[in-house]
Amino acid sequence: MADFALHTDFEASSVPIGELDLCCVRMQNDARWPWLILIPRRVDVADLDHLPAEDRHRLMEEQIAAMGAVRRMGEALLRPVIKLNVAALGNVTPQLHVHVIGRRRDDAAWPSPVWGVGQAQPYSEGSRVVATAAARDALGL
Amino acid sequence: MADFALHTDFEASSVPIGELDLCCVRMQNDARWPWLILIPRRVDVADLDHLPAEDRHRLMEEQIAAMGAVRRMGEALLRPVIKLNVAALGNVTPQLHVHVIGRRRDDAAWPSPVWGVGQAQPYSEGSRVVATAAARDALGL
Questions:
Q1: B124 close to A (CB below 8 A)
Q2: Chain A residue with minimal CA distance to B104?
Q3: Which in A57, B23, B76, B137 has the greatest CB count within 10 A?
Q4: Residue B44 within any structural domain of the chain
């Protein structure tokens, strides 16, 4: 079996946060929302039900950790979130990944989902440092 | 604590499939996609991280079961799916719920997410019977 390799789509649109037990964690490079992506380091897995039970349960716990991290990112950016959207879609990028996105009533898409809304707004260097530090601190990375 | 009551939004847009250990299962009444919704029977829970660990893990297993049921619905409707979208959004309906949606390259939204695309197309009675029977059979309900 081939080794795990991150799909190149993620490198174009997100920045690395670190590695949890199962997942590679990335931050979407779009300052409109605090947004983490979890990618299980498993080969040839497109859907959640391709994961064995142990991985599924670890993924659930890493999702919960990422939710806490996204809440902390919102606070650090002075835009605390009121709702989290958690989704495994993968219609475009086939490598299994879970989006964890913080939402506010005044955000650019509320109450619609965020995908396909407008153009990504890359972080300024200062905000990126604030957001990635908050995420790493919350995740113990 | 108040008893669990299904949010009225679900009654307008979906039909009952049955009850799993944790979740109420409904089928979205939109023939464009085989689509189940899982609603944990818990009170005052909006986000996944409000659930205790035991419920979270049960929810993951019921998601996996619902994914299998959605694949079976697609086959029964002669439109087998190639990808599943699994998402807890809840920006509009605040009661925690998880969408499990079967996707095809020729569906009405591919590769975009399905929410907010066009108008729901309610099932004909015949197709609804086929879809709900496939879902119940797959879920052992």
A1: no
A2: A91
A3: B23
A4: yes
- Residue B3 included in any domain: no
Phi, psi of A100, rounded to the nearest 5 degrees = -130, 110
- Contact (CB<8Å) A47/B91: no
| Residue A1 in domain | no
Supply the ipTM of this predicted assembly: 0.96
Contact A116 B111 (CB under 8 A): no
pLDDT in tens, chain B (141 residues): 579 999 999 999 999 999 999 999 999 999 999 999 999 999 999 999 999 999 999 999 999 999 999 999 999 999 999 999 999 999 999 999 999 999 999 999 999 999 999 999 999 999 999 999 999 999 999
Edge to edge, the sheet with strand A14-19 lists A14-19, A23-28, A35-40, A98-103, A83-88, B83-88, B98-103, B35-40, B23-28, B14-19
The residue type found at A101 is I
Between the alpha carbon of residue B90 and those of residues A1, A22, A48, A113, the distances in Å are 38, 26, 20, 10
CA angle B81/B83/B87 to nearest 5° reads 120
The β-bridge partners of B102 are: B84
- Its pTM stands at 0.97
Name the residue range of residue B39's domain: 8-139
- For residue A25, the domain's CATH number is 3.30.428.10
- Report how far residue A74's alpha carbon sits from residue A83's, in angstroms, rounded to the nearest whole number: 11
What is the C-alpha end-to-end distance of chain B, expressed in Å?
29
- Which segments within A20-97 are labelled E, that is strand? 23-28, 35-40, 83-88
A54 within a domain of the structure (yes/no): yes
| Mutation for testing the B interface, residue in A57, A71, A84 having most B CBs under 10 Å | A84
Count of the separate structural domains present in chain A? 1
**SS3 assignment for A90-128:** CCCCCCCCEEEEEECCCCCCCCCCCCCCCCCCCCCHHHH
